[in-house]
Amino acid sequence: MKIIGMFWFYFLALGVSGYAIFAYGFFPLGSLVHPDMKVVYLAHQAGIYTHIFASAVALTLSPFQFTAGLRNRWPQVHRMIGRTYLGVGVALGGLSGLYMSVHAFGGPVAKIGFAGLALCWLFTGVCAFLAIRRGEVQEHRKWVVRNVSLTLAAVTLRIYLPSSMVAGIPFEVAYPVIAWLCWVPNLVVAELLFNKSGRGLLKLKQMRGLA
């Protein structure tokens, strides 16, 4: 199951980042999105290009942070990837995402949703960095999982959008909801994962104590 999960992690993260680079690097800006969003993109080209390509960096590098072989055999490479992920992908992607959220299509609900995503992405990134600087490896890993769950909002967004279209939900109705749906459940799953692993560790300690 772990191998299958990592396969899908790599496949979706690299697939969406590749799509973003292809769509925005080889086609006119905004040509593959809703017409109203195209107007916003054209009016804020620096912001959207920075966000797209910084986020693509974060998506591309995120699976490698969870590759145990790389982390254990080449820790320096792991650190270099982590610094690039946080310093380029999350920092630039989050700040540009926060800027673009002000101009997001979908009214106040969408604007606040995407702003919340950007702020949480930046906050969890800072917490992950500070934790490893203090030498708190376990806390660092927890914050990285939270952060990557938010990075994967780019993936879930591109799952929900076509799904809503297939379901016949008008774009104007679906998009503000997806602005929240693309990241809040991801973060909830990350927290549930910590709770489950914490309970398992507690049971293991109790069993060892009885033995």
From TrEMBL:
<keyword id="KW-0472">Membrane</keyword>
<feature type="transmembrane region" description="Helical">
    <location>
        <begin position="39"/>
        <end position="64"/>
    </location>
</feature>
<dbReference type="InterPro" id="IPR018750">
    <property type="entry name" value="DUF2306_membrane"/>
</dbReference>
<keyword id="KW-1133">Transmembrane helix</keyword>
<feature type="transmembrane region" description="Helical">
    <location>
        <begin position="85"/>
        <end position="106"/>
    </location>
</feature>
<protein>
    <submittedName>
        <fullName>DUF2306 domain-containing protein</fullName>
    </submittedName>
</protein>
<feature type="transmembrane region" description="Helical">
    <location>
        <begin position="112"/>
        <end position="132"/>
    </location>
</feature>
<feature type="transmembrane region" description="Helical">
    <location>
        <begin position="7"/>
        <end position="27"/>
    </location>
</feature>
<keyword id="KW-0812">Transmembrane</keyword>
<feature type="transmembrane region" description="Helical">
    <location>
        <begin position="144"/>
        <end position="161"/>
    </location>
</feature>
<feature type="transmembrane region" description="Helical">
    <location>
        <begin position="173"/>
        <end position="194"/>
    </location>
</feature>
<dbReference type="Pfam" id="PF10067">
    <property type="entry name" value="DUF2306"/>
</dbReference>
